[in-house]
Amino acid sequence: MSQTPAGIIVDVATNPAGATVTAAGDLDLATAPHFMNLTLPVPGGGEGSELTVDMAAVRFCDSAGIVALIKLKQRCDERGWRLRTINLQPAVRRILVDFSGLGEYLNVV
Questions:
Q1: Could you tell me the pTM of the whole model?
Q2: CA-to-CA distance for 84 and 73, rounded, in angstroms?
Q3: Percent of all residues in the chain with a pLDDT value above 90, rounded to a whole number
Q4: How far is CA 14 from the centre of its chain?
Q5: Stretch 81-96: mean pLDDT, rounded?
Q6: What gap in Å lies between CA 16 and CA 94, rounded to an integer?
């Protein structure tokens, strides 16, 4: 796991089917660059793989966090991967699904 002084922890685990990103803390202006640095170059499987972003421990997500997730989705699309976003806390779900309307785009489960 990698932690920034700003307070997000990001763990990237690869597997034969793709990769899983587990994040904890706030995904915001201060932490989104670190999140992107660790997730955008995710190694792993080829086309048809899946990237799962587990946000069970993410307490807050602002517009910078939304942009980071959109860039991650675009990266998955470029590689032929499927993005799945799971375990959103109610406050984060409201931001990503209800307010921004990105639930389907980010494949929120």
A1: 0.90
A2: 9
A3: 81
A4: 14
A5: 96
A6: 32
Instruction: Give CA–CA dist 18/53, Å, rounded.
Output: 11
Digit-coded pLDDT (tens) for 15-48: 888 999 999 999 999 999 999 999 988 766 677 8
> Quick check: 31 and 62 in contact, CB under 8 A?
no
Q: Is the pLDDT of residue 2 over 60?
A: no
Provide the 10 A C-beta neighbour count for residue 21: 20
Query: Of the CATH numbers 3.40.1440.10, 3.90.76.10, 3.30.750.24, 3.90.1150.10, which one belongs to the domain with range 2-99?
Result: 3.30.750.24
Buried b / exposed e across 35-62, counting CB within 10 Å, b at 16+? Answer: bbebbeebebbeeebbbbbbbeebeebe
